[in-house]
Amino acid sequence: MKVHRYQRIEDVPAGVLEFLAQDDMRNNVPYGIFKMIRDNPGIIPDYELFVVTDGAAIQLYAHHTPPYAPYLSLGRAEAVAALARDWRDSGKTLPGLMGPQEVTDVFLQHWPALHNHISFAERQGFYRLDQVSLPTPTGAVFEPARLSDLDLYVSWLKAFCLELNEPYPGDENARLQQLGRIKEGDLYSLSVNGQPVSMTVAGRKLIHGRCISFVYTPPEQRGLGYAGELVGRVSQKILDDGYQYCCLFTQLDNPVSNRIYQRLGYQLLCEFRRYAFG
Known about the structure:
By secondary structure, this protein is an alpha+beta fold. The chain has helices spanning 16-21, 28-39, 77-90, 101-109, 150-163, 171-184, 226-240, 255-264; strands at 2-6, 48-54, 57-64, 71-72, 96-100, 118-129, 141-144, 187-192, 195-205, 209-216, 245-251, 267-277. Strand 10 (209-216), helix 7 (226-240) and strand 11 (245-251) form a beta-alpha-beta unit.
């Protein structure tokens, strides 16, 4: 097994996207990020891409886009072990690690010293939906996010990151991200009396599906059914747009959100892990 490191996507060998597309649903994060870097030069200025090969065959892919932790694709255990040893022996500093559970488990087996530095560990559930069971309407208005509410959505993104212990990209980048989502029509909200009460994003586009992310309702608006209705409405729109399925991640230790999504028709497929090292 050989580990290759790239700092320019133009240098990455052909076949990486096809490798990830073999299971683009479970590889949705690396698949989506790779396409984003390729199709939008400069949108992620700082990145490292890693490809593990056995001869000419790609066996594993990983990316590191600070401030976020490195993310691993699905891949052979021998390739994961090779990447762990390469990063360990080269002295690479890891702020954390993310990926499918079976992959992160193998990685940590081959860099066992990292266990002593885990400051945060999260079990993530990966869900898929093919048909929506819409909840009882709350009476709130479903609509694409308005540009006039940009400051609010930036503050909600910051609150989301803080609450879920996610890296926050900083106010300037957060503003650019939310602005881009509004302009692309990917950020949605429920509003009551003209005031947004919940948000979510129709995110990464896969071959046959699309991911939903950044589901956030401020604490004073929770328990009123807004998140469930909003995710249901956005899920239905994704299916109406011609996609075969929707997918999303949850915190498995949060029973409330998991129940909400299961009632909408989402089914748990597998587990992922998210670690922070300190």
